[in-house]
Amino acid sequence: MRDDDPDPLPSLWPLTGADALRDELLAAYAEPSRGHHGTGHLREVLERLDELAAAGTPFDRTTVSLAAWFHDAVYDGERDAEERSAVWAEAALPMHLDAATVAEVVRLVRLTEDHRPDPEDTSGCALSDADLAILAAPPERYDAYVAGVRAEYAHLPDDVFVAGRTDVLRDLASSPQLFRTRHGRAHWEEPARANMARELAGLVG
Questions:
Q1: Domains in the chain, CATH or no CATH each
Q2: Which of 60, 65, 141, 157 has its CA 20 to 30 A from that of 124?
Q3: Rounded Cα gap, residues 46 and 131, in angstroms
Q4: What is the pLDDT of residue 140?
């Protein structure tokens, strides 16, 4: 995309007749306090969902796309951000969707708290993999992601941030599989583990 191209994000909104809600979410993602978890992250998650779909990964496009839009709708460095994002979806979507669809979107948003979907949860696996795919980025992009996360926690002293970040990485690394879809395992697992190992070595070295 050229610098003068229009932002493609509005066109990726999956809910007809809810442009005002879309614009509220875009404004939230564009808050200056965000480092990594801004509009760029949202765009990347949606692009990874497209990649998974093109690879034949089964999931419900509408609910997973909506969950992607909401999953970091609230992001302020506090532990309950995913829950507050889910509550926002729970409050905003009933005027546009049936109750079962709303419940599924909310469930998927809450799942991004720990990224441990059941293997049979195809939509959950797709959303989790798309959200974690940044871990498999080329080293330069991965380093920019890490710097963005640090900026979001600028209020924490280095020792506190390093301890927390180390715990997050070790928890992720302890999972037998970071990625739950076939495409994710084949294309993202190895580079993600290499990036995390490199970052951990720098944190604890």
A1: 9-204 (1.10.3210.10)
A2: 141
A3: 9
A4: 96
